[in-house]
Description:
mainly beta
Amino acid sequence: TNNGTNWTAVNVGLTNSTVYALAISGTNLFAGTLGDSVFRSTDNGTSWTVASTGLATRNSVHALSVIGTNLFAGTLGDGVFRSTDNGTSWTVASAGLTSSVVIALAAAGTNLFAGTYDRGVFLSTNNGGTWAAAGTDLTNTTVYALAVSGTNLFAGTYDRGVLRSTDNGASWNPANTGLLAPDVYALAVSGTNLFAGTDVGPFLSTNNGTNWTAVNVGLTNSTVYALAISGTNLFAGTTGNGIWRRPLSEMITSVEGHSIDLPAHFDLSQNYPNPFNPSTTIRFGLPNRAHVTLSIFNALGQQVAALVNDSQEAGYHEVRFDGSGLASGVYLYRLHSGSYVETKKLLLLR
């Protein structure tokens, strides 16, 4: 309640601690979780109840959006669902949606856009009744984030940076000049200012993505997965480094350099997306040139894949892991270099 200076846990009744998405509708707060679908709170998070009737069993909800009295949930494996009674019941709203993995949702008037895994963007003009691909320029593209600013629709993508559409997704154009990272996980809009969360911190565009400037002083080399604007501040949710805050005025009135420092230490990031099907990206940082092994293990400790086993230059590296042929379940990935060893979990969900 004081712009992030202090925090209090508000998890009573929330039986899953991995929360991918939040949305507000009237006095209701909704949380999309990993494996336990949607929860609802009517008291600002003090207590939570399950709001998942009609959602696929044990679903992971990665995106939430609201249009009027309609609440939409984007899931990792079962497309889009709609609720018209504040989450009390849900119905499938995926007709025409050729991807079952929906990572992002954004509303613009009566238009609802869905960002998918490896199938680009889809548009519904009838509250999820039917969907159509929003242009062919994003075919076979994974879209992590969507944002609307006036007549501009922006998509944050895997490996293609930011793309902009001025015709509700019918056509797309790159909007990446100065954006020094190909993967964009989050977008946020404040007036004419557009922020992008990347592997090397946040970037700012003041001209609808035509040019970008790094605004990562104090947050260099932190992967930003979430952005939110509240009042005069921008908040960034990072992987491994918690939440950070910076006044908008500092970034909008200043121009920062584009340099990207080398990692100060070895770093293994959480894979993204997670859960995944069938492929995911693993990112790691090296403070100096070193011999590295990066391997995947099953729950029994048996190696199922060797992704890296050679010398790598200092800096940040990304490796794609394809789990085709493996059974659904929890796997481990381990980075080993000299005396440094770190292991994290990843979830293959078919």
